[in-house]
Amino acid sequence: LLYFYLDLLDALAIDSVALVGHSFGAMIAAELAAVQPARFTRLVLVAPLGLWNDAHPVMDYFAASPPELARAMYANQDLEAAQRMAAGANARLPEGGADNPEGHAVIEYYLERNRSLATAAKYLWPLPNKGLARRIHRVTAPTLIVWGTQDGFAPPAYAEDFRALLPGARVELIPGAAHQVGADQPAALAATIEAFLGA
After folding, report:
1. DSSP 39
2. Which pLDDT value is given to residue 97?
3. Average pLDDT, stretch 41-49?
4. pLDDT by residue (tens digit) across 85-113?
């Protein structure tokens, strides 16, 4: 996956760029910045995965029910995305079966969910720890670590774990946000990132 992204950057002739990632994407961003530190001018990690702390385990994404995931991912349970996630387990075929648009939508939902879980499992199961801690010292870009204070998926304590491995990194905690910081507090997240990238 890393080399796919590096090949893409090569093909686009992008040699100097700020890198921003969220959750799994932040883990990949940190890995990229460790592999080619000179290429990335700034690094923003929003609730990154990639480390493991026995005192603060990351939620088991594959064992959690949709309602549990929704509560862990979103501080604001009234958001449409949170409600869709929580209701996912309730999707049932209509009385007429699969031979109608509603039935097709239910089947598509479960097929897409299973494809997503299978893909994520290749990188995150059994633990979201593939040795990033052994490589992250290679990152040279100024780094911002952002976390939602109500993150129930990857606890905010990981912000300090990342800072300990990235001397000089800045940590910003955003109140009223869980793991989906950008959904819970989009304006606060955007302002935090823009201020850092513009500094």
Report:
1. G
2. 63
3. 97
4. 888 655 555 566 667 677 677 677 777 87
CA dihedral over 189, 190, 196, 199, signed as positive or negative: negative
Q: Each residue of 145-196: pLDDT tens digit?
A: 999 999 999 999 999 999 999 988 999 999 999 999 999 999 999 999 999 9
For residues 4 and 118, what is the distance between their CA atoms, to the nearest angstrom? 19
Residues 42, 139: contact at Cβ < 8 Å? no
Q: Is 78 exposed, middle or buried (0-12, 13-18, 19+ CB in 10 A)?
A: exposed
Give 197: exposed, middle or buried? Use CB within 10 Å, 0-12, 13-18, 19+: middle
In 46-100, which residue ranges form alpha helices assigned H by DSSP? 66-73, 80-87
- Cα separation, 44 vs 31, in Å, equals 12
Phi (first) and psi of residue 60, to 5 degrees: -75, 100
**Cα(84)–Cα(59) distance, integer angstroms:** 19
The C-alpha atoms of residue 180 and residue 174 are separated, in whole angstroms, by: 11
CA torsion angle 122 185 44 159 (round to 10): -70
Residue 39, both tokens: 């290429």
Q: Please, are residues 143 and 170 in contact by the beta-carbon 8 Å criterion?
A: yes
Report yes or no: 172 and 160 within 8 Å, Cβ to Cβ. no
Are 157 and 47 in contact by the 8 Å Cβ rule? The answer is no
Q: Are 103 and 97 in contact (CB under 8 A)?
A: yes
Q: Model-level pTM?
A: 0.85
